[in-house]
Structure formats: C-alpha cells, structure tokens
C-alpha cells in the first residue's frame, strides 16, 4: 500500500521532508520504523502529537525503504486522507 501511495505522489520520505511536512500540516499519517532509535521515535511522536497527527510504529527501516523503492527510511508521511485511512485500517 505504501508503494501505491508513492506512485500516486502522496508520500513524503526522508527526515527533512517528513519533518517539514509535519510542520506544514501536510500529513494525515506518520509511519515510523520499529527499528529506529528510541530518541528518533520520541522526537517524531512528539511532533506528531503536537500537530494532532496519527502515527503508527511498523516494520523496519529497510522494509519501509523497499516499499518505496528507495534506501532505508526511518519515517514515511502519508499526505492523502484516503490513503491514510486505508493504511490505518490495514495497520490495526
């Protein structure tokens, strides 16, 4: 599903893009890799909570990167409400 979001252009990935997207209110769902450092997870969770952004901790950095056709990714921001709802349903 993340790959489909990527093809549709509804994903931000990479630390700078994700952080900027969160600050600008562009995201509807934040997905964090479970193997991210505790500090990284804490920082992203605080940012998500501050901006009332739902988040899930799922998969590994390598898995997120592969789903996007890129290298390892710590965080992925879904920027479409419909895709975010579908992802939340699948992740729960």
From TrEMBL:
Pfam families reported for this sequence: Ribosomal_L7Ae (PF01248)
GO cellular component: ribosome
Annotated InterPro entries: Ribosomal_eL30-like_sf, Ribosomal_eL8/eL30/eS12/Gad45
Source species, domain of life: Bacteria
Residue ranges annotated for the Ribosomal protein eL8/eL30/eS12/Gadd45 domain, each copy included: 4-82
Entry keyword set: Ribonucleoprotein, Ribosomal protein
Database matches in Gene3D superfamilies: 3.30.1330.30
Descriptive protein name: Ribosomal protein L7Ae
Species whose genome carries this gene: Allisonella histaminiformans
């Amino acid at each position: 599903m993340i790959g489909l979001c990527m093809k549709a252009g509804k994903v931000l990935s990479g630390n700078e893009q994700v952080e900027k997207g969160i600050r600008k209110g562009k995201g509807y769902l934040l997905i964090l890799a479970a193997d991210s450092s505790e500090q990284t997870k804490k920082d992203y969770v605080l940012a998500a909570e501050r901006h009332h952004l739902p988040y899930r901790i799922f998969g590994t950095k390598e898995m997120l990167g592969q789903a996007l056709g890129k290298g390892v990714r710590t965080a992925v921001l879904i920027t479409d409400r419909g895709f975010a709802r579908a992802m939340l349903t699948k992740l729960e």
